Amino acid sequence: MGAASSTEGEREPLLVHPNRETSIQPVYSQVYGRRWLVLTLFSLLAFMQGIVWNTWGPIQNSAMHAYDFAKSDIAVLVLWGPVGFAPWLLFMWLMDKKGLRASLLLSAFFMVIGAALRSVPVPEQQLRRWLIHGGQLLNGLAGPTIMSAGPLLSTTWFAPDQRATATAVASLMSYLGAACSFIVGPLLVPAPNDTTHAMVNRAVDSTEIQINHIRDRIQLVLYAEFGVVAVLFAAVVLYFPSRPPMPPSVAAASQRLSYRNSICKLLSNFRFLMIALAYAVPTGVVAGWSGVLDMILTPARVSQVDAGWIGFWSIMGGCVFGVAMARFADSIRGMLKLILILMMAGASLASTWFTLTCLTRLTHLPSTAATLYTSCILVGIFINSSVPIFFELFIETVYPVPEGITCGVVTFLGNLVTGCLLFFLTFYSTELSWLNWCLTGSCAFSLVLILFFRESYDRLYLDVFVSV
Fold this sequence. Notes:
This protein has 468 residues and is mainly alpha-helical. The protein has helices at residues 8-11, 35-53, 60-67, 71-83, 88-98, 100-118, 125-141, 143-146, 150-157, 163-188, 208-238, 250-253, 259-268, 270-291, 293-297, 304-331, 336-358, 360-363, 369-384, 386-398, 403-425, 433-451, 458-465.
């Protein structure tokens, strides 16, 4: 049962001709110009969720001076993102039963309250730390909807020849937000003196004036993020419909499995579990790895600003390349597995190069800014750009399971991997070369699973062979 494709009954459209001689009535589909507004609102909210999640990693040296954070505190602040996926079943149920608008409104509400808590300027440092941690947790609770609803939005609003592109934009914007945090933070928040050695000797030669200045700049960033999130929340309240008046395709109008049957089908489908692990392991590891990239690059004497630029271009390259590959996948349908094989092969080679470059004392490979930039950026390009391609393959593999439920399961698995990694990091953060090896191994593991995966395209079958 697990490896079986969907039945003809499950593929049957919702609109059935009353004349029994004709088994299927043409589904009148239409695409609306407002779909771009819906995609823009969702993408901007995803962008802010990503930038708020990754606020502290790029400025960890400054935060350690300003708020007396330890390395474990920085790891926990990043960890709240994966922890927010704990009630993922509730969010998937809400998305399936109440629609995308209700689930997105709740997520946006969590984001605005979380951003507000982080920006409360209380003088008591211990209370301030609790507010910051609480705000990060609330922002993490928005993750299940933000990171898994992209394919649902694309199927509901976009035509088949635009679905992969819309999925790429919606699912990669949170990554783009995390990328921009690598720039916004280091550029607006000054690094303390002797940034390279601050991990060992923090606040040794920093004056009280400098610490106050750093706190003021961090507060400015928190205020700005809260303001943008509040505006987006108001926009979603004013206008964000769950679906258009008419479906854009046959697949968008077809009957779907119930919530309980969907979960059972996913957990019993070996092919789905196989490709879900191929997605969750490398993307989960790279999320935790990028969240502490500044700490990883510090032993290589890379400054906070330079580490920020490396992280930015790593994720930015993945976002741009991901949208380009999704557009390519829209033009040549049925080639998702081949695209993923090429991406994971490239990710395996790039992560191996980066890992060996960081071990220059043992490998004697040249460790220059150029090699660190290139290898790290290639890792981000290959892994991050695979996300929308994975999402499209998930939907095709288990159709007619609803898109929100399918992607909710896989994003939960990815964040479970990230959470386990960061939880371990809170106890073992003195030497991080093992994290680079985890990244390399995860890419190789994913490549092997994809090679043995048997692809199918049930949703594509419906759109191509059912008259529209």
